[in-house]
Specification:
Order of helices and strands: HHHHHHHHHHH
CATH class: Mainly Alpha
CATH superfamily: UbiA prenyltransferase
Shape: globular
Strand content: under 5%
Distance between the termini: 22 Å
């Protein structure tokens, strides 16, 4: 089996935006509670939340298989480059990986509660998103819960700026999802890669917030991860 279809199935090019979400949450926790963050958890939680994201993308394609056969025939499951059986195994493995890592975090109980909420939100969205326009709220909630998982796993406290960061991504994800749905409704693609650029913009949103709250240098981190997202999207579709 070729690796590129697997990467496309997982939308792996979008992962830098998830990493920026995790980084933002950790920086804001450290700002609120100085010297409380164990930075060894940055790669571990980035891996966990990446697993949730990729698992959600795989499950999305499994749920949308019939629809994609008519509207998006380039999807790896539809072309047969990845089998349905393999996709089910990958989705289960990814979700399990995310849950296991969070279960090892400093505040495992609160982290697992948040991770379970994220998992449930992903499943609800993937199963029902073609049935109701209200599902865009669920999509926004899933992105916001990335911050909550990190917050609960590392501090078990409701910290204001982390929740504000989550709220900003919730609103931004709503706008992104609305724009993507309108593209399908209008029946023709936008001029230029509007959706991929908006996805990459998630990292810039986080960087801008950190620049205001912590230090302007964090805007550079957001821009770098946005550019990394766009670079990846040149090779693996992120929409």
């Amino acid at each position: 089996m070729k690796i590129k279809p697997l990467l496309a199935l997982c939308r792996i090019s979008n992962l830098p935006t998830v990493w920026m979400n995790v980084l933002t949450a950790m920086v804001l926790i450290d700002q609120a509670i100085p010297n409380s963050v164990q930075w060894c958890w940055l790669p571990l939680l980035a891996l966990a939340l990446s697993a949730f994201y990729c698992g959600g993308m795989v499950l999305n394609d499994l749920c949308d298989y019939s629809w994609d056969k008519q509207h998006q025939p380039y999807r790896p499951l539809v072309t047969g480059s990845v089998s349905v059986k393999t996709a089910v195994f990958i989705a289960c493995a990814l979700f399990l990986t995310g849950l296991v890592i969070v279960a090892l975090a400093p505040f495992a109980l609160m982290g697992m509660l948040a991770a379970s909420a994220l998992f449930a939100t992903i499943v609800i969205y993937d199963v029902f998103h073609k049935q109701t326009a209200a599902s865009i709220l669920v999509m926004g909630l899933a992105r916001a819960l990335v911050f909550v998982v990190v917050l609960m796993a590392l501090s078990a406290q409701w910290l204001q700026w982390v929740l504000i960061a989550a709220a900003l991504q919730f609103v931004y994800t709503l706008s992104l999802t609305f724009v993507a749905r309108y593209e399908h409704i209008r029946g023709k693609p936008y001029r230029g890669p509007v959706i991929p650029r908006m996805i990459a913009g998630m990292a810039v949103i986080d960087g801008a917030l950190l620049a205001i709250v912590v230090s302007p240098v964090w805007l550079v981190a957001g821009i770098v991860l946005a550019l990394l997202t766009r670079f990846g999207q040149r090779y693996v579709r992120g929409d």
